[in-house]
Amino acid sequence: MRSTQLGRFRGGISRRTFIAATGGTGLTGLAGCLGDDTDGADETGTAESDDTDGETLSGEVTVTGSSTVYPISKEMADRFMAAHPDVTVRVEPTGSGGGFEGHFCPGESDINGASRPITSAETDHCGENGVTPLELQIAGDALTMAISTENTWADCLSFAELARIWSENGAETWADLDPDWPAEPFERYGPDTTSGTYDWFTETVVSSAGPHRSDYVSTEDDETIVQGLEESPYAIGYFGYSYYARNADRIDALRVKRGPDDSCAEPSLGAARDGTYPMARPLFIYPSEEALAREPVAEFVRFYLENATADWIADDIGYVPSSDDQSETNLERLEAIVDD
């Protein structure tokens, strides 16, 4: 059965009996969490997922949140529904903050994807509605600052220079950064304020110079950013590495360095994995503990975590898969909650 609107939580207890576990710790960074090994899933990234107790699994699962996490969640949903045709998994890219605020915390979605950790205010909002988020780090990303292929002057920018471009009352033209560069105004493209990518970039890079400026083309559609970059040599924009990688023939990526004396690093999965790219960041899903009481949700999340180490996450989507250790920790945390 296909859902046509966001569904609310339903009652019911999982029939699967999970192995009891001790639970995991908070996940705060990429180091040790993302790796080269992909032994946790087969080459196609599809783990075994038999029907429970000989019964056909059925029902609905609703996933909202980050447009960055969306391609992983959508592919996971498609693979899960292929194994369980009586389950409908609906995935909607609402932005990390938009998903928490408008769907997940009110109890209207089961899982929210996020390209930054949930905030204390969002946790409080969820708690007011009886929703308990479970944080699960499922991949890594290299946030990418992109420019036109006709931009022949800029190659590497520091955090301070990026902050000048993107902060209120900051630089207005390329020449403001370097007098040898064109005295042409920046044409800025970026994610909407409901986006976790916006939040992460603002907190990590822009905040040193002030608030993120509002006079830019904001969108949840990454294609709009790519088109804007194609249309002007003076344009600049940012989004997740996956979308850059799929459009590397249309746009260029800037190298980035944290401080003026640091080495410039280009965005790549390898650099995100080993920590040499300064705008590497973790990606998350947040199922609610209440939704996990429903078997289709618990089984989908378990499937998601078992396959989070798969090669296709890097090869087909363009993100850093979880390490085997991270996947095991996530599964232990899940099983500790779902265990009967």
From TrEMBL:
Q: What CDD domains does this protein map onto?
A: PBP2_phosphate_like_2
Among InterPro entries, the record links this protein to:
PBP_domain, Phos-bd, Phosphate_ABC_transporter
A Gene Ontology molecular function term of the record:
phosphate ion binding
Region listing for Disordered, in residue ranges: 38-58
User: What's the superkingdom here?
Assistant: Archaea
The UniProt keyword set, sorted, is: Signal, Transport
Q: Which residues form the PBP domain?
A: 54-305
Which Pfam families does the entry mention?
PBP_like_2
Record's SUPFAM superfamilies? Periplasmic binding protein-like II
Matching entries from NCBIfam families are given as: ptsS_2
This protein is called Phosphate binding protein
Instruction: Supply the source organism for this entry.
Output: Natrinema gari JCM 14663
